[in-house]
Amino acid sequence: EEVEPTFIDAKRLGRSLKQAIIGQDQVCEDLAAQIRRRSALKQRGKPVGVFLLAGPPGTGKTYLGKRLAAELGRKLLHLDMSQFSRGSAASTQLFGSTKGYVGSDSYGRLTAALRDVPDTVVLLDEFEKAHPEVHKNFLTAWNDGFITEASDGKQIPTTLSIFLLTTNAATESLQELSAQFEHDSDELRRVATHALREAGFAPEVLNRIDRIFVFKPISGLDVARVGALEIERMIQGYGLKVAERGIDPTVLLDLMKRHGKLGAAGSSRDLVRALEEMIADSLISARQKGVTCISL
Q1: Helices 132-143 and 87-95: crossing angle, nearest 10°?
Q2: Of 128, 134, 142, 264, which residue is 20 to 30 A from 113 by alpha carbon distance?
Q3: DSSP assignment of 114-140
Q4: In terms of C-beta density within 10 A (0-12 exposed, 13-18 middle, 19 or more buried), how is residue 199 classed?
């Protein structure tokens, strides 16, 4: 199928993603380059890309999907795949019901979204938790460039869409492999595919994924960078502003120490919990006193 090519500035996109997704610079740059190459193709019988984001929880996989959609100016369809673990019932929610069955007068969530906005970014969180029947339906979307709406048999094109899958499966082995094959992307893909297959991913699903991106645990100064961003978000969440140079570096150093005690298991979610313990009560007090701008 011939489509109108789009020319993406990969450097600008990579730079914007890196500013938002801390500690995953390589992933952001590689993803931006992949999207630039694939968006420029005129002949395309498949989606712009089917990418798997693998790694520990709280490292920015889901957030990357959200930021990518925002940076590209595309609509985001965010689906928690653990909600689609029950066989045929799960499939009907996404792909519609066959004529004569309950709900056959309305489209599925996925088919309706792609019918209305064909160039959607489809973010499939924790993809491995969906039922194999659901996985099977996605194979057509990725392989043949369309999905079929069950209620009326209409084929909905997927050639303008970007599919991002996230998984926490095989986290430890993927961390080791990504460090070992950091400079050999072909070999990393091969060994990562094997590790994910061992963790329960079906071979036919892995065969249709264009690229596997492995996220690293957050460590070192990246903990402070994530901490600073989360502090700003939290302060704004309470309706306050941060004074210029209003975050004392010792607050961030304390955060790094607390995070260090968690070891490799620590994630950005743990940082948020630690921050809430450290500053939330003070922020509420400041708000009650009518303060508008604060320093920590």
Answers
A1: 40
A2: 128
A3: HHH-TT-EEEEETGGGS-HHHHHHHHH
A4: middle
221, HSE (Cβ side, Cα atoms, 13 Å): 1
Residue identified by tokens 């100064």 is 221
Q: Which two tokens stand for residue 263?
A: 């070891």
Q: Which of 54, 244, 88 is nearest to 64 (CA)?
A: 54
Q: What is d(CA 164, CA 263) in angstroms, rounded to the nearest whole number? A: 28
Q: Are 87 and 40 in contact (CB under 8 A)?
A: no
Query: What residues of the chain score a pLDDT lower than 50?
Result: none
- Give the pTM: 0.85
Residue 213 CA to residue 64 CA, distance in Å, equals 11
What pLDDT score does 4 carry? 78
Q: Are 139 and 208 in contact (CB under 8 A)?
A: yes
Between the CA of residue 107 and those of 21, 153, 156, 164, 200, what are the distances in Å?
34, 11, 11, 22, 30
Residue at token pair 């712009």: 48
